[in-house]
Amino acid sequence: MKLIVFVTEDAHADPSVDTLVEQGFRVTRLATTGGFLRRGNTTLLVGVEDTQVERAFDLVKKVAPGALALTMDLERYERL
Q1: Is the terminal CB of the chain with fewer CB neighbours within 10 Å at N or C?
Q2: Phi, psi of 64 (to 5 degrees)
Q3: DSSP element (H, E) containing 52
């Protein structure tokens, strides 16, 4: 299991979330601020199976060019 963190410009947030959800991914959306000009960003947290990482990257790349993507291993994942 992996956790992908996508950081997108605010303008790309809705299309990114919509595209991921339409393809069956679960997404948590966080409003964030950062960068040189302190512009608004949106951070998306997406938990995926190892085999789905590239698919999620490809989907976001199409609707949010220039997004930052970080992938982390998850040792444990539970719905509480």
Answers
A1: C
A2: -140, 70
A3: none
| Type of residue at 13 | A
Q: In terms of residue numbers, what domain contains 53? A: 2-61
Helices 53-63, 10-22: axis angle to 10 degrees equals 140
Please report which helix (H) or strand (E) contains residue 35, including its range.
none
Reading the block at residue 36, the tokens are 């040189």
pLDDT per residue over 8-54, tens digit each?
999 999 999 999 999 999 999 998 887 655 678 999 999 999 999 99
Return the residue matching tokens 């608004």. 40
How far apart, in whole angstroms, are the C-alpha atoms of residue 77 and residue 44?
A: 17
Evaluate whether residue 73 is within a structural domain: no
d(CA 45, CA 5): 5
